[in-house]
Specification:
Length: about 240
């Protein structure tokens, strides 16, 4: 029974991200950052596995709509300020990822800002639940991850991938996901089951703060697969250039 419960949490966790690839933390105002921000120019990506990718997109869509989203709606019983505090906590946990990748890209100001935010919010902010750092000179900056680091050094996307449960990605960003896992302290402090439960809680909380972005795409776009593929690669290219 315990294993079934944890497996269910895993489905919630990984099924919660058919929209955004890097697990971005929720914004402090209770809305997610726009996952499809236009970089200002069209960017294309090779998609030789489109037939397989479309099948995985369909699968992820069903997991999101029938598992992840209903659970997240139930979580909305928690007042929004409480859910924002939970989002702050998970964002603070990911600070080592952002700090290390800022250093690897020689963005020393950003690295220093991340370090300041981490120590400020971990202490005065009660283990990251609050964000006093933003009011004391350490404002929240655009996050960095290893996929962006590879892109910063000229590594291309490779082909487009839709990962089971995890959603849109690419060969480069898939490698980046794995590398970033080793920068997270919980990887070493918790066992696999505990990490799965923690990830599930993060994902459920994140989509509970979302204003039905994916549902809007599903409703308004003729081909949601193409829209998300194109928006994903443009967004990632924009992040690399920042």
């Amino acid at each position: 029974m315990k294993r079934f419960a944890v497996l269910f949490l895993l489905l919630i966790w990984v099924g919660a991200s058919p929209l955004w690839a890097a697990g971005e933390p929720a914004a402090l105002d209770g809305e997610l950052d726009d996952p499809f921000g236009d970089s200002g120019q069209e960017v294309r990506i090779a998609d030789p596995l489109e037939r397989i990718n479309r099948g995985l997109f369909w699968f992820n869509d069903k997991v999101y709509m029938y598992v992840a989203k209903p659970v997240a709606r139930g979580w909305r019983v928690v007042p929004e300020p409480g859910r924002i505090a939970v989002g702050n906590f998970f964002s603070n946990l990911a600070a080592p990822v952002r700090f290390a990748n800022s250093l690897l890209q020689l963005k020393f100001h950003k690295a220093g800002n991340e370090l300041g935010r981490f120590f400020f919010n971990s202490t005065v902010g009660v283990f990251g639940l609050l964000d006093p750092a933003s009011e004391n000179g350490f404002r929240k900056l655009d996050p960095e991850d290893f996929g962006q680091t590879l892109g910063n050094y000229g590594v291309g996307h490779g082909c487009y991938l839709v990962l089971p449960f995890l959603g849109p990605s690419s060969v480069r960003d898939g490698i980046g996901r794995v590398a970033d896992t080793f920068l997270k302290p919980q990887t070493y402090l918790l066992n696999w089951w505990e990490n799965t439960a923690l990830g599930a809680a993060d994902a459920v909380n994140e989509i509970s703060l979302d204003k039905d972005t994916y549902e809007g795409i599903r409703k308004d776009e003729v081909d949601p697969y193409l829209f998300i593929r194109n928006a994903y690669v443009q967004r990632r290219e924009g992040q690399v250039r920042k």
